[in-house]
Amino acid sequence: ESIEKGGYEHFMLKEIFEQPRSILDSMRGRMIAENNHLMMGGIREYENKFANAQRILIVACGTSWHAGLVAEYLIEDLARIPVEVEYASEFRYRNPIVNENDIVIAISQSGETADTLAAIELAKSKGATIFGICNVVGSSIARATDAGAYTHAGPEIGVASTKAFTAQVTVLTLIAMIIGSKRGTIETSKLHQLIAELEQIPAKVEETLKLDKQIEEISAIYKDATNFLYLGRGYNFPVALEGALKLKEISYIHAEGYPAAEMKHGPIALIDEQMPVVVIATKDSSYEKIVSNVQEVKARKGKVIAVVTEGDTTIPAMADHVIEIPETSEHLMPLLSVVPLQLLSYHIAVMRGCNVDQPRNLAKSVTVE
Ligand code: G6P
């Protein structure tokens, strides 16, 4: 087993550090940067169907559902098709409206999650086209779908998903770009810019991983906290949910992820000097708004751990701790901003003596309801 861990103490840490490679593998052969060409075998036959779809439904569970939320922002912005993201377990039991013009994207690392599989069968029976995004080749979900794309992240052993998430987001980004260019909803210059930026993501993830020591130090300060709040807006909102989920899963600290503006409708009541608040506040279209959210947290004496874009000076002047990550397009930011949150939850869990790779009560794939 120690050989399989490749010198890392846990599979989860190994998988976090594999991300520059796994992200590259998930785009390999699908993106030719020299001539700005995108291609994805699984989607080719269905490109017209995607381009003409009235609506895209996404079904998934857990971390894969968070990747689906990122895709909602990507597809609506780049391809201008309405997207609904559904928990597979709710979708399957609520008599949903689905028809033959709908495309359902099912996202699953394992390809074996019972609720996701059942949601697919239901959507299929109503005539929808089902597109799968799975990591495990030949899995039940991969076989149950009409077409699909594998994430190629390699085996993920740690129960808490890390590299599978970034691979899913990468593949979903490519899909949004492919449909957007087919529909003409994304300008050529914008497409080229995104392709160039996507190509740089593995190196930027590598840069982000160098923050490991700094994040370990921050973890030592907050390891005994009983609650955490994670806030983000726009593309970083699903990242806030994912950061909170990671912490809950492996450290057993209660954590909530929220869209930063919703804070005033509830979570703000929880903020006092004991409350660590992780704010993902990178430079994007909602930056000015999140600056005021950070002020609101500080006014209530919350402890702010801010993930910011390199070179930012406004948020660092207010935050208690600053984690600086490289700049990229806001469309791609989740691929970078999730990494420090994975590391934060990892180090806190290790310091609390938790079984990081096999947290209590959780399973890698949930094949029963
Ligand atoms: C379990 C795992 C999570 C995962 C979720 C969905 O809860 O512990 O890490 O995100 O299932 O799994 P899937 O294999 O469908 O992505």
UniProtKB/TrEMBL annotation:
Primary location: cytoplasm
Keywords: Aminotransferase, Cytoplasm, Glutamine amidotransferase, Repeat, Transferase
Source superkingdom: Bacteria
Reaction(s) the record says it catalyses: D-fructose 6-phosphate + L-glutamine = D-glucosamine 6-phosphate + L-glutamate
EC number: 2.6.1.16
Domain SIS: start-end pairs: 46-185, 218-359
Enzyme class: transferase
GO biological process: amino sugar biosynthetic process; carbohydrate metabolic process; fructose 6-phosphate metabolic process; protein N-linked glycosylation; UDP-N-acetylglucosamine metabolic process
Keyword Cytoplasm: yes
GO cellular component terms attached to this protein's record: cytosol
Active site location: K364
Signal peptide location: none
Functional description taken from the UniProt entry: Catalyzes the first step in hexosamine metabolism, converting fructose-6P into glucosamine-6P using glutamine as a nitrogen source.
Subunit note: Homodimer.
Stated name of the protein: Glutamine--fructose-6-phosphate aminotransferase [isomerizing]
Species classification: Bacteria, Pseudomonadati, Bacteroidota, Cytophagia, Cytophagales
Whole-protein coverage range: 243 to 611 of 611
